[in-house]
Design brief:
The chain has 232 residues and is an alpha+beta fold. Helices cover 28% and strands 30% of the residues. The protein is built from 5 helices and 9 strands; from the N terminus they run H-H-E-H-E-E-E-H-E-E-E-E-E-H. It has a 9-stranded antiparallel beta sheet, with helices on both faces. Strand 7 and strand 8 form a beta hairpin. It is globular and about 45 Å long. The termini are far apart.
Length: 232
């Protein structure tokens, strides 16, 4: 009987070892991600226009102005390639309604007169965490937009943001390509976004020319914009 028991144990042991080894050597698909806030819990009391970088803080050669409130809505539509009243397909990719009141959205724009490229800082008062925007971008990599009779395809791709002291950050590359009019009307954008309390800070480099974005200027202005909000 002892010999029989030893034989059974001898057959079981390799099976147990194989199971243990398989468990120890297994990997979980995917990649580690840092946790991001799922709610906005802090109110930044300063009024948004006072949190914009001063025009003198824009890097050269971007000559900057703070946009009057009645021009902010139009400029915001240019940045996301959609804008108010646009028909967006798929419909789930329609951005949420944005309040363009004085303490809800503020914007400053700098222009390089030689290349016509722009750097834009947009501040939005938002109770939506940045994680919600990230989820929309992941679901809406390519959308078709019809606005004022003009059809475009808007493609967005998430990218790695520069290190910055904020509650949450993301970066994206975006292209707005018209269905007619040629490549010279294609907008290319690189945007860094940060959340500090209930203020969402977006800094966008936009150009109609081919070539790489002015990343040093974009990164420098992003750091300035985030720091000004964080310190208030």
């Amino acid at each position: 009987m002892a010999d029989s028991r030893r034989m059974r144990l001898g057959r079981v042991a390799p099976v147990v070892c194989a199971v243990l080894l398989a468990g120890c050597g297994s990997t979980v698909p995917g990649r580690p991600v840092s946790s991001a806030p799922t709610a906005v819990t802090r109110h930044v009391s300063a009024e948004l226009p006072t949190l914009l970088p001063d025009p003198s803080q824009f890097p050269p050669p971007y000559a900057a102005v703070v946009l009057p409130q009645d021009a902010v809505a139009q400029a915001a539509g240019d940045l996301d390639g959609m804008g108010r009243g646009a028909n967006v397909q798929p419909s789930r990719c329609v951005p949420p309604n944005q309040d363009f009141g004085p303490d809800r959205t503020a914007m400053a724009v700098g222009t390089d007169d030689a290349t016509r490229a722009t750097l834009t800082v947009e501040l939005i008062r938002s109770g939506e965490p940045l994680a919600a925007l990230r989820a929309r971008l992941e679901q809406c990599g390519s959308v078709r937009v019809n606005r004022a009779g003009a059809a475009t395809t808007v493609t967005s791709e998430l990218d790695s943001p520069p290190p910055i002291d904020a509650d949450d950050t993301l970066s994206l590359r975006r292209t707005v390509r018209p269905e007619s009019g040629g490549a010279r009307l294609t907008q290319t954008m690189r945007t860094h976004v940060a959340q500090v309390g209930d203020v969402r800070i977006s800094v966008t480099y936009m150009s109609f020319a081919e070539g790489e974005p002015d990343t040093p200027a974009l990164d420098a202005l992003f750091a300035t914009a985030v720091r000004k909000v964080r310190e208030r």
